[in-house]
Hints:
- The complex is a heterodimer of chains A (297) and B (288).
- Chain A has helices spanning 11-39, 57-63, 66-99, 104-112, 119-129, 136-144, 155-184, 187-195, 200-211, 213-229, 232-238, 250-259, 264-288; strands spanning 42-45, 50-53.
- By secondary structure, chain A is mostly helical.
- Chain A has a domain at 77-262 and 270-288: MetI-like (MetI-like fold).
- The two termini of chain A are 26 Å apart.
- With 288 residues, chain B is mostly helical.
- Chain B has 15 helices and no strands.
- In chain B, helix 1 (2-46) crosses helix 14 (254-274) and helix 4 runs antiparallel to helix 13.
- Classes of the chains: A mainly alpha (297), B mainly alpha (288).
Amino acid sequence: MSTATKPYDSTLQAALLLLPTAAVLVAFLYYPALETFRLSLYETLFLGQRQTWTGLGNFVSLLTSDVYQYSFLVTVAFAAVVVFGTLGVSLLIGYLIFSVDVRSSVYLVAAIWPYALPPAVAAILLNFILHPNLGIFTHYLELLTPFTLDWFNDGPQAFAILAVVAVWKQLGYNIIFIVAALSNIPEILTENARIDGVGRFRMLYKVYVPMIAPTMTFLVIMNTIYAFFSTFPLVDLMTSGGPSDATNFLIFKLYRDAFQFNSLGLASAQSVILFVVVSILMYLQLRFASGYGRYGG
Amino acid sequence: MATETDTTNIDARRLVHRLPDDVLLHGGIVFSILLMASPLLLAVIMSTQSTTEVYQVTNLGLGSKGLSNYSDALVNYDFSTYMLNSFVMSVIVVVGKVTLSLFAALALVYYRFPYERAVFMFILLTLLLPVPVRIVPLFQLMADLGWTNSLLALTGPYIASATAVFLFRQQFMGISASLVEVARLDGVGPLTFLFRVLIPMSRGMIAGVCVITFIYTWNQFLWPLVVVTDKSSQVVQVGIRYLQGSAQAGLTQWGLIMAGAVLALLPPLVVLVVLHRPLLRTLTIQQK
């Protein structure tokens, strides 16, 4: 919209309209964020009552700590598994729903409902269904395959179980965008391929996936942010970071350092590192997938 | 006659040819949907079972408890309090965020003022500041203000939002310029313009933002866990954590825990099913 069509020009009124939003953003977003940066340069004792300047000391001790390095590694691996697991399954289900016309809106609602699923509920439901001794899935899995579920003690299994929960919860969000993107492809572009008698699934990855590449990029970024920032309830309710740090993701380590061990400076340094992660992801989002993405609030 | 049977034959042949494909397609969809829903369906069944029944792993019938696990969770394990707290928190954030964001978008789209672009960037940049990036000082701020364990701490940090401002701005920019011109020539004031023209024309978008915000707020876990320690002020997502802890004495009462989980899921699920149309429209707009 050009400025010529803007009907109002009172700067005072504009400021008053923007004031509530700006005040909240300054008080609860910008100020604490800046304070995070400041605190990250201090060593704190006694719940932050005593602060000693340490410069980049917190960052040095984080980057040279085996525990933090390992936490970083498992988080990145977890994000990769969750991102591509979610995309693969959502693409398949989204494509099936897109391929039928009748009742597709009933199907759509039945497929996207995990969008409303609270992560804590997702964690607690699968904690039970996949419970090593009581889980009904565990029972049939062990009956039908030689596999034994022991994720209370087995690190890689705990990692895999959390990935299953994270993917399950994120399917709804992904299917919404994939079905919308597929429906937006002009029919004329896919007609030729259809006449050539290309099989349904060949069509999916030869014709459709390249056409919805921007949506796929968008979802890669959103799912990565989700894997880094929104999987805290899963770890907290299912594994507490274990066994032997196999699921000690960055967000969980940050929480424990801040609120169980009261290392506020060290925790703030971890927040700064997470800020760098989210900044890079948002930059990539702006750069590659036209437009801007959404992270929560 | 002959031609008619021919076409019928062809139709029939085409039908036979199409049938397995369609059956496979629908079968595939139904199978995936059931697989996705199975943990929830099982949880609903288990929530009616007694602890003894739950420990018979393959017992998949409705249990002897009926709905008493639900009343037990609501009455004896404080889920009625947690649910109410979650509901109040979510409604305050929805109303507050929509109101504040409508005002901000009104200013951004319909006012000429200095540094417009910078103000917009100032709002958008907060996308880089999710709760974990500022959680330590935010908690200290709440403690300094004496807001811990209060609704102010639960709602304040969520009440302004780059996403909602961005969406309403997009929506307003799509409203025809001639309409704005008419409003200007008639000398309509900004608030009248907002309430008489913009809001009625943005109903779908407002509904969508309400749904997104309600689900997002209801599902919050980390921040309430940190800032609320008094159980009577806690929200239902963290209530699940308490329930998991207290039901673990002796044989874990999984039926009770499942009932609590179903309760904590119900409100956002109902909102999604009822309002999925505006939700879908709004979500897919924000990607553009």
